[in-house]
Amino acid sequence: MAVYTDVAADDLAEFLKGYDIGDLLSYKGIAEGVENTNFLLRTSKGSFILTLYEKRVAADDLPYFLSLMAHLASRGVRCPQPQTNRSGAVFGSLMGRPAAIINFLEGVWPRRPNVAQCAGVGEGLAKMHIAGRDFPLVRKNPLSVAGWRTLFEQSAAGADPLQHGLHALLRAELDFLEHAWPKHLPEGVIHADLFPDNVFFIGDTLSGLIDFPFACNDILAYDVAICLNAWCFEPDHSFNVTKARAFLGAYGRERALTAAEQDALPLLARGAALRFLLTRLVDFLNVPVGALVRPKDPLEYVRKLRFHQTVNSISDYGVTASGQVS
Question: Which pLDDT value is given to residue 30?
Fold first, then answer.
């Protein structure tokens, strides 16, 4: 979440006339995250999140995201629900951008996830994958391996000024992954951005999965690899095998990884690290003037990528090939 687009009170009040969510009492921007503009709304009927979809989200994709949340919730997955306006639509237009309102979920996201929370997100991710099996809509992942070359070209000139040798590292890794990326692994609905700030907990109990604008159809184990990167490293960027063991073990108890998925996991983790390195680099080099946003450090993912390059098998992540803890 972030704030790229300022919204005046009068414009917001006019937009909210189209909804039956009560009178606006207050609103404030949410500065965390990097992709879309978000505000916390408080009205006479409760709390809501207003999202203005920015650069990487097309209006044509919104029915997928918003319908997916409703589908998952109907199957027991805790996630926000879009609010329908008076015309029956789940999104409209505000400040020239597609905009939607969703209900507010209780809970807080963990600034430094503990082992129990890593297990919780593993279980929650597996249940989401299972619940998405019969979701009828399909959306390709624009930020999978086929899209990384464009991101590299967009950021290439700024790579070495940020860190000497980064351009060569990116180019070599991209060449390798484009050639080696696995095919014929199980696919389905993935979240594709399940970082700690997109998961709410009450204590150590998962209370909700949020922020679905990157959801798509792709390799299920790639979603697992994204979470390994997002949840299982410490602030000093060292890999925490105890957290990884808890995460993978909890995931596997709900949905067992196939032998092919287990074999591919180190490669998928490299790909996930490269994907977020590239998008963070593009964002770091292109923060709009006046945007209320804190760009995230792309170099964090250089360190993660280098770690995954040393991994030989899933056992290095704390579980055996059979899915048991090692």
Answer: 82
Q: What is the pLDDT of residue 163?
A: 96
pTM value is: 0.88
DSSP codes, 89-140: -S-EEETTEEEEEEEPPP-B--SS--HHHHHHHHHHHHHHHHHGGG-----B
Res. 54 pLDDT band, cuts 50 70 90: confident
Kindly list the domain boundaries of the chain, sorted by start residue: 9-103, 115-317
Element (H, E) at 25: strand 24-29
Look at strands 97-103 and 24-29 and give their pairing: unpaired
CA atoms within 13 Å, Cβ hemisphere of 161? 7
Amino acid (1-letter code) at residue 86: R
Q: Starting at the edge strand that comes first in sequence, how are the strands of the sheet with 97-103 ordered?
A: 24-29, 37-43, 46-52, 97-103, 92-94
Q: Which of 93-102, 257-266, 280-289 has the lowest mean pLDDT?
A: 280-289
Q: How far, CA to CA in Å, does 85 sit from each of 16, 17, 66, 91?
A: 9, 9, 13, 7
Q: Which CATH number fits domain 9-103: 3.30.9.10, 3.40.50.300, 1.10.8.60, 3.30.200.20?
A: 3.30.200.20
For residue 303, the SS3 value is: helix
Which of helix, strand or coil describes residue 209? strand
Rounded mean pLDDT, 130-150: 97
CATH fold of 115-317: Aminoglycoside 3'-phosphotransferase; Chain: A, domain 2 (3.90.1200)
